[in-house]
Amino acid sequence: MVDIGAGSVDAAARAIDDACRRIGFFYVVGHGVSIELQQALGDASRSFFALDESEKASIAMSQGGRAWRGWFPVGGELTSGVPDRKEGIYFGAELPPSDVPLHGPNLFPSAEMQDAVLAYLDAMTSLGHRLMSLIAVGLGLPADHFARTLTTDPTILFRIFHYPPDAERWGVGEHTDYGLLTMLLQDAQPGLQVRSRAGAWIDAPPIEGSFVCNIGDMLQRMTGGRYLSTPHRVLNTSGKERLSFPFFFDPSWDAEIEGYSGTYGEYLVAKVSKVFPALGTEVLP
To answer: Which of 25, 29, 49, 151 is most buried, by the most CB atoms less than 10 A from its CB?
Structure first.
């Protein structure tokens, strides 16, 4: 558990560096994202997922086009080619319509959801910059290293996932994240598991007031393997519905990535197009 709201910057940076080297996951508290905002987001999400599918389909991803926004039903997203046991909504930075893949306006089902999501995007983007500053210090770099060189205009992706109240199969199969940093808000129901270096699966239960953070494939590559992009999975065995809110803080769209022959945007499009094959033609150039 890393408290970034108290104590020294160096102490927090050392704690994050140690966690990133050992397992690639850490809990963070003292983050400054208000509980009122988290509750508003949870309330709006529960109201939406309680709707009939015909109503949820009013913001289906097929309507989001190249912006890659909107709702998908249970089984509509793939992990390693296997349908997930969850439904969800995709969001990103609120932008005008654009021909650039993954750029454009969000699809909101209600004013309450719009207000909560837009405020949450702002709060989590600020937290992402703060955590990447601590990661830079832990790596022996200037605190503003990533903000100057990689995340000046970060690519932000936000998901709200709803897991049915059963354990019919994995909610999300084993995978790693492919960006820089993931910050996850969980509701009160457990489900997240992280694979240790020895191959054992470790529960990462929700802890009130915290976010679970993990390193993605891109940061593992950029640190030469010093930091670990660790496999994880989700199984909802609680017998209750489960909500989770992963926020992905990634390099600027046009950032040139060392060791990759292209920009981060090109890398990202190639990855996400495998998640929804039916929509791939909407995003691929």
So the answer is: 151
